[in-house]
Amino acid sequence: MNLGLIWQGCWAMANNVTKEFELYEPMRAWLQQYLENKYKGSTVITIDSHSRTLDLYLEQNGIADYYPQAIGLDIQIDILGIVINKGKPNIAFIEAKKTQLNLHDLGQLWAYCKLCEPIEAFLLSSAGLGSLNKVLNNLNRQDLLDFGSNKTIKKMQVGKWDINTKSIDYKTIVPKI
């Protein structure tokens, strides 16, 4: 029995959550502060939205007409941000994971972003970038983070969530904020 591997496993568990649900409220609070700071003067609403489809939250907040492409689709974003500036709503997403990130996770958020074009989109994991580290940093394929119309290309942001500081580990964020 390799005690070193057992210790590493215990350390990893102590520095992670047991259920993904535990990430939602700290990430929601972080997103609220982030959006308020970045979009000063706007009304900002953030919601733990993991339990229902996106279109229900858009309807509940009176902005479904701005996102008809989301109606009737089974899109379940973990954290939804709504930024209203001069009567115009924009949305922001966080997709949360407690496991190391992979291409499947990126693809899920990318599809949501292509459909809904949020102003901000984050893929965050309390376990780190996983295989996306190789894709984004070693192979330098940050073009895989692109979404938006031809006029305005935006980038999803991928990073490690620090459960102790309840914030993004900014050393890991791709692309850099």
Description of the molecule:
This protein is α/β, with parallel strands linked by helices and 177 residues long. It has helices spanning 3-14, 21-38, 54-60, 103-116, 132-138, and strands at residues 43-48, 79-85, 88-97, 120-125, 146-148, 153-155, 157-162, 167-174. The strands form 2 sheets. The protein has a 6-stranded mixed beta sheet with strand order 1-2-3-4-7-8, with helices on both faces. The chain has a two-stranded antiparallel sheet with strand order 5-6. The longest helix is centred in the first third of the chain and has 18 residues, at 21-38. The chain is globular and about 40 Å long.
Features of the shown structure:
6-stranded mixed β-sheet; disordered N terminus; 177 residues; 8 strands; 28% strand; two-stranded antiparallel ribbon; alpha/beta; globular; single chain; 5 helices
SSE map:
Blueprint: H1 3-14, H2 21-38, E1 43-48, H3 54-60, E2 79-85, E3 88-97, H4 103-116, E4 120-125, H5 132-138, E5 146-148, E6 153-155, E7 157-162, E8 167-174
Parallel strand pairs: 3-4, 4-7
Antiparallel strand pairs: 1-2, 2-3, 5-6, 7-8
